[in-house]
């Protein structure tokens, strides 16, 4: 899976609609302290289904919604969408991928109403989104998304945790979810 574009609106410090095109190769985001670099990485995690508010550096999930400043009113919703292209070897099996291999996943949260997801315009469940990214060997906990302190966490991880990282990298994490589902039926 190749990420091509990230769109944000009302997400953390990105109150105005913001579009970030991601070209092939290495992308660098530079800027002064507090300008929102980490918020962008968090937006990628969030749209992939991150369910822990703590890992978004918040107390509750609604803390991702623009909270307002002295000069701007707070927002009532936040929206992030990610445009990805299917690559050879991706399963993308649970996704309604377009003929051009494009998949746009969108997550929206409203105050008091929780999160909702869409994939190429269709309403989908959080679970479907988790499978889409797991099948493409990525997701909110992918080792490819390296945040501050993560290197030390890998070194200190217990063997089971390290195994989970390897399984995500190998793209088989989705199989565990499906097995658990099958066992419950
Ligand atoms: P550093 O270089 O220090 O790591 P950074 O560029 O990674 O900085 P971020 O941590 O992404 O910066 O952004 C922090 C900024 O985002 C702070 O100014 C904080 O007030 C703002 N912010 C976070 N959540 C919200 C929110 N819900 N509403 C408005 N602003 C927010
Ligand atoms: Mg940062």
From TrEMBL:
Function in brief: Required for chromosome condensation and partitioning.
Organism domain of life: Bacteria
Family classification: Belongs to the SMC family.
Binding positions (ATP): 32-39
Domain remarks: Contains large globular domains required for ATP hydrolysis at each terminus and a third globular domain forming a flexible hinge near the middle of the molecule. These domains are separated by coiled-coil structures.
Protein name (Swiss-Prot/TrEMBL): Chromosome partition protein Smc
Record note on quaternary structure: Homodimer.
Gene that this sequence comes from: smc
Origin species: Sphingobium fontiphilum
Protein localization: Cytoplasm
